[in-house]
Design brief:
The protein has helices at about 30-50, 90-105, 120-135, and strands at about 5-10, 15-20, 60-65, 70-75, 80-85. It is an alpha+beta fold. It has a five-stranded antiparallel sheet with strand order 2-1-5-4-3. A hairpin with a 5-residue loop joins strand 1 (about 5-10) and strand 2 (about 15-20). It starts with a strand and ends with a helix. The model has no long low-confidence stretch (mean pLDDT about 85). This is Trafficking protein particle complex subunit.
């Protein structure tokens, strides 16, 4: 069973709008999660500009000895990334499904303001269900 450590959602201007910790060994506080999101957004943007391949969409996977970072960027510029244990498979599909949950439960919520922090109970419930389903699978 692969462990998912953290989930981040970053708006198109680089602001952290959602963060969820799934019991990682080294818990991060709010300031650390904001720093990680800002740093990732900057690295992602720089990688798009420095890529020798035209039309590069940026970093999709960053592998380290102690974690993997999987990223999905929507057409609107919202970035979704998961920090998981090394070698975790099928995170691209999970990220796309999380994006679908985001569009269904956050963007269609009449009380949600674009680019603002996500505070939507239905999104939280369905996200938790999807993460648990992925852990079981």
């Amino acid at each position: 069973m692969a462990a998912i450590y953290n989930l981040y959602i970053i708006n198109k201007s680089g602001g952290l709008i959602f963060y969820k910790d799934y019991g990682s060994a080294g818990r991060t506080d709010t300031n650390d999660s904001l720093r990680v999101a800002s740093l990732w957004h900057s690295m992602y943007a720089i990688s798009q500009q420095l890529s020798p391949v035209s039309g590069c969409s940026g970093i999709e996977l960053l592998q380290a000895h102690t974690f993997d970072l999987h990223c999905f960027q929507s057409r609107t510029g919202t970035e979704f990334f998961i920090v998981s244990e090394p070698g975790t498979q099928h995170m691209e599909g999970l990220l796309k499904h999380i994006y679908e949950l985001y569009t269904d439960f956050v963007l269609k919520n009449p009380f949600y303001e674009m680019e603002m922090p996500i505070r939507c109970e239905l999104f939280d419930i369905n996200l938790t269900r999807e993460i648990q389903k992925d852990h079981v699978a």
